[in-house]
Amino acid sequence: MIKITDLEKVYRTEEVETVALNKLSFEVKHGEFVAVMGPSGCGKSTLLNILGLLDDPDAGSFLFNDIEVAHFNERKRADLRKHNIGFVFQSFNLIDELTVFENAELPLIYTGVKAAERKKRVEEVLEKVQIMHRRNHYPQQLSGGQQQRVAVARAVVNKPKLILADEPTGNLDSSNGNEVMQLLTELNEQGTTIIMVTHSEHDARYSHRIIRMLDGQTVTENIMI
Amino acid sequence: MFTKAFRRLLSNKTFSLLNILGLATGITCSALIFLWVEDEVTYNNHFTHKNQLYSVLENQTYNGVTSTFWSTPGPLSPAVQSSVPGIQNTARMTWADKQNFSYNNNPIYQRGAYVDPAFLSMFSLTFLKGNPAAALTQPNSLVVTREMATTIFGNTEDAMGKSVKVNNSELFTVTAVVENQPYNSSVRFQWLLPFAAYEKNNPWVKTWGNNGLQTFIQLAPGANTNAVNKQLTQLIRTSEPESKDEAFVFPMSQWRLYSYFNNGKPAGGRIKDVRLFAGIAWVILFIACINFMNLSTARSEKRAREVGVRKVIGAQKLRLILQFGGESMFMSFLSVVLSIGLIYLFLPAFNSLVQKHLSLSLIQPVHLAGLLSIGLICGIVAGSYPALYLSSFKPIQVLKGFRDRQNSSASWFRKGLVVFQFSISIILIICTTIVYRQVEHTRNRQLGFDKENLIYAKLEKNVQEHFSVVRDELVRSGVVTDAALCNQNMLEVGSNGAGFEWQGKDPSVNPLVSLIATGPHLLNTMGFQLESGRDFYTDAKADSASVIINRRLANMMGKEGQVGHYIKRAKEQYLITGIVNDFLYNDMYSKPAPLIMFCMPQLTEVLMIRLKPSDNLISAVGKVETIIKKYQPEYPFEYNFTDQSFNTMFFNEQFTGKLASLFAALAILISCLGLFGLSAFSAEQRKKEIGIRKVLGATVSNVTALLSKEFMALVLVSSIIAFPVAWWLMHNWLQNYEYRISISWWIFLLAGITAMLIALITISFQSIRAAISNPVKSLRNT
């Protein structure tokens, strides 16, 4: 599903040049659950942003479903993104002014789904993450675990082929964290490809494969059994 | 305190710039208007006896309608002086007029009047040369202003004792040079001649029946004006037994601003404009202050932590109020300084717009105090709400992380202020459009004659006698179609009278009829349509007892209003030889009044000339000038184009229109400066939300729409508020005009859409910037 070859990304400021990705290459197949690990600053977030089509690489190739997307313009990337990719963030990133239902509904609005269909699908995913009873609450009124479940619901409401999760349990206690990991596992079992950046060896164990990064390069790949 | 304020100003350059620019624009605009207001309200203040000086006015009633006239009979002044107690002085003055002054055979027209000698002391003229007591006592004395002395003699020194030929006949000798009247004086002249000299050539001023002069009265301090009015009226009625006129004294302090009368009662005047514009000046100032309030409270999130820290380490609320108040005061005075520069920069343009000679003088206490108080008021108004709001934050709340939520009270307050700003802007757009359309509507009105290619020039007596020769030569020149004599420019018919009779006339009907003295060829020259009858004969004497009347009068006369019938006045009887269409004069907004043309070329002073349509009117006028000069070589040839004079008749409306559009532009400019700041703030505040939405698939246009929507809603609410207010204002304004447009709905729509577009463009700078920003960056710090 994803194949990156010699991917490079360099951040420049006036004084320093930081190499975030240094000829990075790997492949992720359909239905895989991959964890990306590594110390802070090793380029994990940069990688996730490029995989999520939020940022473009300076060099290298990025095949998404066999299509070269490395040099897509903003509009094409946005279009590809909203139909294919769901995001789960460490800090949830829910919109404070919108209710649980409205937050989960947003991706459907941007892909132009009709209101009646939206209602059905949002209720379905809220049911799935067991937050339906809080559908009219605002994010601040929920616990961290509940907020992350809303975020997961929002990530999958569009039935994306790929979910990118950036330390999804980083702000949660262990029981809430486990619940979220359980959810991701279920989604993966139903066929969604998942790439997850994490610091937690515990969470990484939910994945099929761990890619370890250092200084913008992969150092090892472990296959989980 | 100010060093800190200055540091803060530098640390937020954009914010400070928006604030200071907005405030300075507002202050500049209002200061210019206040200069105009000052000029208006200090009219005639230079006269020492301002509070004792009065003009005598008369109320005359015709057909149940009372009109107020500033003209009085000639014998009134001497009679009053001797018989009414409480009067210190009286003087007559003719209506200021251009006369021909010739020195060393250089003729020049100058404007002035004939006055009684008492005028000089009553109006406390400043004498540069000569003796006030003796200046006008000799019948051939001449008083000139500094300006005229310089024009004719080069300087004031050489003027004294020089003899000047007036109107190519009599010699007058300069006996005094006086200082020019200031521009805001109701009594303006370049020369003064003794009234006795006028009386000699105009015997009618000795009769009570002719009102053609201004009478000024200086009352003793504390004199009872009611008693004086009673005696004046009585004096007129005893001297002219048939008169029902009512005379009254009208104080100099009201000449400029309260000079309108409606059916004999005072009905305000320019004071309405003064109040309106002063009000608008304050509103514009307030709109500018609003920006400051809005931007300051919008940025409160950034300052909340500072307030929290300060409070925790012991600052009291009052101290904080003073701190924030001080900052806004500092900002406000910086704006005043900037606006002083702007005032000097824009004053020349403003002067030409309002046709005045205003000036700003920082050494003049009134101006300095005015600017300081504007600065103070802006500082207080602009700083009050932010100071109270910011200082009220609870330390624990803000230190834990304060967010100015979208539906907090401060945010509602901000929205209210934006709505206020845009309501005013939209109202001004609508008013400007309607005023402009009303003026255009009237300018394009069918006048009843052709105003293009029509010039008029002053003529001297001897030319009238050779009129047919002059006319023939003009027509033969090939550039002139026709020419006619007339007693005045046909746009301004100054004479009128009542007391006309016809057979079967309803005795209660006594219309005031406009009177024109003319001769043959006027109808063709002007392009009037003769509905029936004929023009005056070329031999004018044959028609000395004939008149041509207009349609309005003909209708009033009923079946007597026909060619071949008669109209009478006193002992005279006139044969109606022609009826012309109603044409417009004097007031372009109303219906033409009844009008009579007499065939009396001996009373005419103006030559109307119809030029052939041509690409080169200047050369045509040159040919005309050569011909006229041949017959009156002693006089300069001064002419006007009728269509240009016509345009000047709309000065007041165009003045209002231009000022209104200036105000509208400024109100929008200032409002947009504020909106620019607010939208920047809003985009900043919603950075994270925008990032999330973009990650979820929102396009640039989705995000732009999202950010613009909230401001568009405010402009929409502003429109809803502005529409009825603007309609009401303009509906009332239009009632002043009999000939007026109806208010069309599309003007409102246009104004609303314009405001929306301008607001949208302003906001789009910020919203597009926010929308194309990389969401990765805005989500990184969360």
Automatic annotation (TrEMBL), chain A:
Residues 2-225 form the ABC transporter domain. The keyword Metal-binding does not apply. Keywords: ATP-binding, Nucleotide-binding, Transport. Pfam families: ABC_tran. SUPFAM superfamilies: P-loop containing nucleoside triphosphate hydrolases. Gene3D superfamilies: P-loop containing nucleotide triphosphate hydrolases. GO terms for molecular function: ATP binding; ATP hydrolysis activity; transmembrane transporter activity. GO terms for cellular component: membrane protein complex; plasma membrane. The keyword Transport applies. Belongs to the ABC transporter superfamily. Macrolide exporter (TC 3.A.1.122) family. This is ABC transporter ATP-binding protein. It comes from Filimonas zeae.
TrEMBL record, chain B:
Residues 16-235 form the MacB-like periplasmic core domain. The chain crosses the membrane at residues 16-37, 276-295, 329-347, 367-391, 412-436, 659-683, 711-731, 743-765. Residues 280-392, 662-775 form the ABC3 transporter permease C-terminal domain. One of its GO terms (molecular function) is transmembrane transporter activity. Pfam families: FtsX, MacB_PCD. GO terms for cellular component: plasma membrane. This is ABC transporter permease. It comes from Filimonas zeae.
